[in-house]
Amino acid sequence: MRACFMGLGYIGLPTAIIAAKHGIEIIGVDINPKVVEMTNQGKLHIIEPGMPELLQEVVSNGQLKASTKPENSDAYFMVVPTPFKGNHEPDTSYVEAATRAVIPLLKEGDLYVIESTSPVGTTDKMAELIFDLRPDLKDKLYIAYCPERVLPGNVIYELVHNDRVVGGMNEASTDKAIEFYSKFVQGTLHRTNCKTAEMCKLTENSSRDVQIAFANELSLICDKAGINVWELIKLANKHPRVNILQPGCGVGGHCIAVDPYFITADFPMESKIIATAREINNYKAFWCVEKVENAMLKFELAHHRKPTIAMMGLAFKPDIDDLREAPAKYITTKVMQSCNNADILIVEPNVKEHNVFKLTDYQEAYAKADIVVLLVAHTPFKSLPYDNKKVILDFCGIYKK
Ligand code: SAJ
Question: Domain named UDP-glucose/GDP-mannose dehydrogenase C-terminal: which ranges (predicted)?
């Protein structure tokens, strides 16, 4: 069997590699020639533990080949980004472009699957587009939506072991998609229709966003009330039916901070909690900036000199190098603009070099800083001794003080 993966990003490439490893011949397609070149050389262009070795193996034994153009296959997978536009409207243009690129290659009996997170109704729309341009294939294709659920950093395990939801346009399409995924997924493949599968992906990430917003709201309340939010949550979670998540400096990444807008854009009157959660999680980053600005002013008044501020962490969550939609990056940028009176040291231990931020070693920055701003709970930060001569703004619960 031959499968064509449209998009070799954080999800498309690992999925293509795992499928190749399970005996499927893969054509991996990306519009970026650099990604294609690297992939064909067996070099992974993303960071994911265990994946570089697997890529080398499947490229060298000819199971995976990358190209800038799709090639004739039996199954086609759309795994391209679905960002949002300025007004938080979902942008499905990459899914449409990838679909248009494979339409001339489709033949009777082929499987077409969308994996990209998509607004409800996208699979139906793409099916309409396909049949408009290829009326000869009406009722002769299998079309499904099957979202991914993997957590960056644990992708090899989760791609194989997570349960998945498979939503076909009809029962035969669901069967065909399940037949494909069961070649490498050991988790249960749950059957549904494509609309429910689309909404399920959005629901999973919106649910997490709402739960994090609750923790962030508690952190704002506790700050005013003079209560340690970390202790509060730990105690509340001792209740057998309470399980509150952790507050932080905001919500980042390309999923949880984005996907809820795919619901609020289409169902604005019905999605009040989802919309408010987004507002709270966005506001948390502004609040952190204000806290740093106030700490700087206080320091200047007390010491009659400008402080050295260490901004600890830029990634969107602990122990990764991914800075996409990272609130820590946003906060650092704002602090650099508004605290231009201070010496600002920027730390991100998972990134070697950055074209915008001049990075400093985390121990050096901590030692030099008057004000330490803990933005991301990276493991190395946890071994820094608490120094009560410094002003420590712990937004991510390193010290939980
Ligand atoms: N965060 C908190 N407090 C918490 C947990 C997370 O502030 O208690 C923050 C993180 O610091 C980060 C953001 O939330 O900024 C998102 O991190 P995450 O670990 O919750 O999720 P992602 O974006 O890495 O991956 C999510 C996962 N979805 C769910 O857990 C429902 C993953 O399974 C999905 O595959 C992925 O989105 C995706 O691709 O959609």
Answer: 310-401
Q: What is the pTM of this model?
A: 0.94
Does 253 contact ligand 1 (Cβ within 6 A)? yes
191 burial type by CB count under 10 A (0-12 exposed, 13-18 middle, 19+ buried): middle
Considering the domain architecture, whether residues 12 and 128 belong to the same structural domain is answered as: yes
**Nearest-atom index, ligand 1, CA of 316:** 15
ipTM of the complex: 0.97
Is there an atom of ligand 1 within 6 Å of 151 CB? yes
**pLDDT digit string (tens) for 131-163?**
999 999 999 999 999 999 999 889 999 999 999
- Is 138 part of the annotated catalytic residue set? no
6-to-25, 28, 209 alpha-carbon distances in Å? 14, 6, 28
Active site residue 201: yes
Any idea what the CATH number is for the domain that residue 107 is in? 3.40.50.720
